[in-house]
Amino acid sequence: MYVDESGDCGLPIQGSPTRYFILSGFVLHELRWDNTIEQIIQFRKRMRDAFNIRMRDEIHASGMLSRHNYSLNHLTKNSKNLKISV
Predict the structure, then answer these.
(1) Which of 4, 19, 53, 76 lies at 20 to 30 Å from 12 by C-alpha?
(2) Does residue 54 sit in helix, strand or coil?
(3) Are 52 and 71 in contact (CB under 8 A)?
């Protein structure tokens, strides 16, 4: 199982900096793990080759929308809008 969060789960009285807290995840059967990780690696290689995004770079939607994610600053607006299938 993989779980990830976005936002801050702080209480409003504590001055939480985000309006929403999102928790998502997925479960993968153990027999599908090897094939799935290989597909993810191949996807990352395509991203590296097409957009010069390093394999270790994290790709976040917020980084696509702002200039604070310096590892993605070299991408043009058009590159950020491309739809790439896994």
Answers:
(1) 4
(2) coil
(3) no
pLDDT tens digits, 18-65? 778 889 998 999 999 999 999 999 999 998 998 888 888 887 766 666
CA distance 3 to 26: 7
Q: Which domain holds residue 36?
A: 2-80
pTM exceeds 0.90: no
Within a domain: 22:
yes
Gap between the Cα atoms of 14 and 4, Å rounded: 23
The number of folded domains in the chain is 1
* H or E, element range at 43: helix 33-51
Q: With DSSP H G I counted as helix, E B as strand and the rest as coil, what are the percentages for the chain, rounded to 5? A: 45, 15, 45
3-state secondary structure of 82: coil
Which residue type occupies 43?
Answer: F
What are residue 4's DSSP bridge partners?
Answer: 24
